[in-house]
Design goal:
The chain starts with a helix and ends with a helix. The protein has a two-stranded antiparallel ribbon. Helix 1 crosses helix 3 and helix 2 crosses helix 3. By secondary structure, the protein is mainly alpha-helical.
Length: about 140
């Protein structure tokens, strides 16, 4: 599994806005410049995050984006699930499943999915922005 550009941009956008939340609405041009990202692509990602309930758009002069809710209530799993689609290794069974396919599905893909979900479901946006090393990076 590889996180796509959409997923990576989305996480960077949310972390940037969370880190600068005390500045009011944040314009995408500012985030794009700070993060060295394509503003045009960032607009598409911001739209998805707004529709998904992670961001709020503020129109007009001084407008931009705000987090829809607190970083502590935003699960990284939910963000990636929204931006990546279903983030699992296991594919739905179609038709007859032979013994080898069943064993691989149950003992490889299902276990991978469980572990990935455990890691991401236990991680919030607040965890990422409050990581001890993060303050040294900015």
């Amino acid at each position: 599994m590889k996180i796509s550009t959409r997923g990576r941009y989305g996480l960077r956008l949310l972390v940037d806005i969370a880190e600068h939340s005390n500045e009011g609405p944040i314009a995408l041009t500012v985030v794009a410049k700070r993060q060295d990202l394509s503003e045009k692509y960032l607009q598409q990602v911001a739209l998805l995050l707004t529709r998904g309930g992670f961001l709020t758009s503020v129109k007009g002069s001084g407008g931009g984006y705000l987090l829809e809710r607190s970083p502590a209530s935003m699960m990284i799993y939910d963000v990636l699930d929204l931006l990546e689609g279903n983030i699992c290794f296991e594919e739905p069974v179609q038709g007859e499943e032979n013994a080898i396919e069943r064993v691989i599905r149950l003992h490889v893909y299902q276990k991978l999915d469980q572990e990935v979900k455990k890691v991401f479901e236990g991680l919030t946006l607040a965890d990422v922005t409050k990581a001890a090393w993060f303050t040294y990076v900015i």
